[in-house]
Amino acid sequence: MEPTNTSDPDYFHRVVDCQWACPAHTAVPDYIRLIAQGRFADAYMLNRESNVFPGILGRVCDRPCEPACRRGRIGVEEKPVAICRLKRVAADHRGDITARLPTAPAQKNGKRVALIGAGPASLTVANDLAPLGYQCTIFEALDKPGGLMRSNIPSFRLPAKVLDEEIGYIVDMEVDLRLGSPVRSMKALLNEGYDAVFVGSGAPKGKNLDLPGRQEAADNIHIGIQWLESVAFGHVDSIGKRVLIIGVGNTAMDCCRTSLRLGATDVKVMARKPRAFFKASDWELEDAEEENVEIVINHSPKSFVVEGGRLTGMMFEKLEYTVDDKGEITDQKAVGDVFFPADDVVLAIGQDNAFPWIERDLGIAFNKWDVPTVDKTTYESTRQGVFFGGDAAFGPANIIWAVEHGHQAAISIHRRCMGLPVTERLPRGVNLRSTKMGVHEWSYSNDFDPAARRKMQHVELTQRFEKLDVEVELGFTAEEAATEVERCLNCDIQTAFVPQLCTECDACIDICPVDCLTITPDGEPDAVAARLTVPREVPSQPLFVSSPLKLTGRIMVKDENLCLHCGLCAERCPTAAWDMQKSSIHIPYAGNEPGGHVPCQQRKAG
Amino acid sequence: MSYIRKPNITYKGRAKNALGLSESSYEGTMSTLCAGCGHDSITAAMTRAFFELSIPPNRAVKISGIGCSSKTTAYFLSQSHGNNTVHGRMPSIATGAAAANGELHYVGVSGDGDTLSIGLGQFAHVIRRNLNMLYVIENNGVYGLTKGQFSASAAFGAKTKKGEVNPNPPIDPVKMGLALGASFIARSFSGDKNHLVPLIKAGLRHKGFALIDVISPCVTFNDHEDSAMSYKYAFAHMHTAADLIENKPEITADFPEGAVVPVTMHDGSDIYLKKTDPDYDPTDRARAFEYVMRHQEKGEIVTGLLYIDESRKDMHAANQTVAAPLNTFPYEQLCPGSAALADVQKRFR
Questions:
Q1: Nearest-CA distance from A185 to chain B in Å?
Q2: Is the domain A493-586 a CATH 3.40.50 member?
Q3: What pTM, to 2 d.p., does this model score?
Q4: What residues in chain A have per-residue pLDDT under 50?
């Protein structure tokens, strides 16, 4: 087999499943170790480098890192490390970090950037560019900044104070934030002579459901994201007793829980499909169900029922599905109609981006779905100097994706303004550094901790509905955090192998607690895979393959799937052919580009 | 050695044996041997063999003498019976235990010093008695615990780590076993578990004395360039006479008829010997002796199942002792009292 090229920065990066899965590639094990050491401010600053909003994301991130977490793959009962909530621990206990924040230089670079929408994407662009001397102007339609983070995420999940603080860190870098200033014409904006324009206006158009009765009952039918915005800004403060939520995504979860806080007592979430097909994250479903929201499956909306000019409920078609072995729906049939009474209905069936304010003759091409054509690497539209990011670029995703779009767009904007080609970007890099400190001492906590995932404590049900903004999650206690950090397997402490040193004594294979190592004759990939100590459970996880070993010409193969990074192979290796080495993945930002404030070579390894 | 206990993890896809146990149920305490010691690999092979044979851990007995090798009984089968005995006297304790209860699986672990120097007499007599046990010699050619002096198995002319030359010829346990009439004789190498595990399994199933001499490099004192028991030397000089394979192979180009010889074990099941050398006959003691001698003169280490005789009676059968374990008898029957003793004595007057 072809030996694995471990000098490819992506190889070791991929082993750190959480960091690889995170759109912004936050160095998760690094910050968890800092939390373990009580270095909360350091953990916060490390987070901020990549994800910009640790306090916000520590509460409401969609956490793609957690389903990817190695810990969740190990045993049948194992759950991933509570990465997201540990981020909140760092944010909650960071103390005063204002002196460590980047600042805008007194000497500006003479470039002006317009940012449309004060959501996470635009704020990230400002965060990356303001320290380089750019004059950033953010145009926000609403009276407060934050975009969807403020208007759509209820305050019982994300307190306003957290938002204000973290947005403040960016705005305080001499960013010109213009609230209540919707951009009504792109042409007019472009005429103002900005060096670059970034569109981070989100996907603000909630989908409608045009069924019979929709017009007659309009007063009691609400579009989810607009309704949540009205609640967030105090324009709506009540709802009927019986509420039906149509749709079962994360917005639906926010709608049903918000309804309970506005006076509803009977809230049902109506889903067309069975539970396995829900779009909402498991944990958001759990939190809604904890509040006694009923989730009704297999009901497709048919009509709004109106009596005497007032909504009385909805008629649904009950469906039955045929699901095949792979879990895919192969057939469905209707088995009769069912009526559900309701005082109000909230539609949470999706959202679109809409750009009625962008004239179509500006050289910004729109595709057949009437969304702009945006380059997936540079985030530039077909008009040079106009960039898109966040939900505005490729439709609804989540905050952490918007942040990553912002980072990448900032690089492009900087390169465009410096007259450099935007398609040429700094590559990612990786540094490896041994963690061996003595004969049997390692600079990380490598002993496997069998503790189960800590469960987040919530405010009592009776208390949490008293006010709209009672934050439900209490955050981890010191003890819970101390236990949870030890569950992290330190996947960034890599098993680095030097085949020339191996004496093929088998010590590593014997001691490996998950049997992920094999020494075997070289051969075709299938033949080698068939000889592994334990058959591969997850073929999408890579195999590490060494070059031929010195004594027998056999190869060392490691299935990266289950490795615990416990370091026992390196402990037991008589010749240090195995070593545990800390990998630091270098993710370039605008500041690392030529003309930036931190050239890549000077960045310290994490 | 390592200072971190191997965690017990029931990972997804972990194999279970017929008893529903995973291999971790057959492991022992943390090894305190040097990192890379061949003995630790033999420990892992032992764990694997007991796991694969689905032997309940509480039906096994581990006995050892003194030395690095003899420490290893602590590192596997922590739920089994065990006795770390006197230097070179493991065979006597094993004989006593087996005499009292012949139903358990006896595993003796010894080293080249414990077996071929201080314990040579005991070793010879336990072979003679054909005690039903597996006797594994973890053979590294040096006295590791006393800082690396030559042991009785060190090759003639081999050098210590400091360069001293060995003036004496070695005692070869395989040739001793052949000479003394052992009924199961094998040699293997700690670095090759595919070879070693089937031999341990066959040795455990053999009804009688099963001797496996395992070359087990001492990483600290005998893994250097001039050693004849280093990993490098062993990998380069292993000569397999007859490999054991677990299942009956289909006759193919790789396994032509005649190359695979079935051997019927005492329990009626078959094991299969793959003769890598057509010259070899593992049922002919004299030819086996000659074969081992001839290849040794070329500096080779002859490995594999070298001799097997399933027909010889073990100690219990030869002495016509009672089949049931003594602990199953009521006290009155085990110790019938002074009247019965007087009756027996009368017969000799």
A1: 57
A2: no
A3: 0.91
A4: 600-602, 604-606
